[in-house]
Design a protein that fits this description.
mainly alpha, Receptor-associated Protein, 3 strands, 20 helices, 2 domains
Length: 481
Amino acid sequence: MNIFIGVYHIIRNIFSLPNKIIGSSKQKKIEKELLDEQKKRQEKLLQETVGTVSSTSKVNELLEDKKVDKKDLITFNYQVKNDAGKIIKSSFDAKSMSEVEAFLTNEGYEVIKIEPKKKNSLDFNMNISLFGSHLKTSELSFALTQLSTYIKAGIPLVDSVRILAKQTENLSKKKIYEKIVYDLVSGESFSTALENQSNVFPRLLINMVKASEMTGDLPTTLDEMSDYYTSIEETKKQMIAALTYPSVIFIVSVIVVAFCLIYVVPSFVKMYAETESGLPAITVFTIAASNFLSQYYIIIIVVLAFIIIGFILLYQNIKSFRRTVQVILMKTPVVGKIITYSEVSMFTRTFAQLLNHSVHITDSMAILSKISNNEVYKEIIMNTLDTLSKGGKISESFRGHWAFPVVAYEMLVTGESTGQLGTMMEKVADHYSNLHKNAITSVKSLIEPITIIFLAFAVGFILLSIIIPMFDIYGAVGSMG
């Protein structure tokens, strides 16, 4: 036992865990009381939920999103000095100034100044909160892996989160972890601490952590969620990699064509105007396009900006418009496959994660409806909930639907009939993830030559429209000679 305690303190020193708390008996007593209160709450939760995990109403109560009442919290601006002597300015939400002071002291900071935020004043960290206030998918995945590793090594959860906070250089992200530490020390569960920052952490992660707190297997859940978000990040990178090169070529093409029309073509217009011979149709068209672009390019840019902004606002705020766009894209020959494969992979992988953690099917569908951004799949999920409420099967809502491939449907039926639905959904996710990767590669190899051909055609068209009249002029001059 003494050896274990020694190893534990060595680990704490390696990661620069707050040593000042050990030297302060008063602060140590406060933290011990808060941790005891947290333990009592967790034991009470387990007693209430034991034997009722399979109950739909109880799981609904535990898994539904709750809005945290923050009316009793006050924002305090503070200035502290860390172990390295660096001055840190930030802000924190708490019930009282003494709580902020105790928390900062326990975290190893030397408190310089704490004061309530004045009304209509800016936070100390406002300049950084506008950027990087959210965790990227890759950062979230890595943080979950670290937490799981620390917990498996015997480090308490609150100390594990402290390590994440101390190793984070970005102040706004450090504040995210510090808020979790504050909630944990105050007696809140880990899922509640995450839910208090629902604008930072995904709904799926919050609900999966809630389920793991009932089963007592948090590290496994953290590992699985890390793998889940890693797969999502890989899919995003594949899409970005596939579209980056063609997008650059297309933008360069537009810039080159616009430059030629605005600055190159007009220099030849005066020379052609002095000739009495008529200009070919290709040259007349190019000159007309050049004149139009030169005179109205500002209006064109403004109109395009309004169209793009209007499209984005309509897509984000009007459900029917968003659904129409999604249906059109999903039924487009090449693009449709990529979107469908991605949506099926995402849906089945998330569904498998929920099922494998003993979340009731009805509750899984309710969570999926909140996570998905595709209105077509939201409709399928809502139809599934309606079917389940009438005693039907999941597969009934997916049968024959154009957005759900036949292979995925057959595997869904097989998993439903054999009682291995979670396992079958994992296999479906892996299968369509591979199809999605192959489809992106194919589209990338197709788009690249198309964009290059477009650039060559546009520039060649302009050059021909300029060169052809020159031959006519040279011919006329030669005949005169």
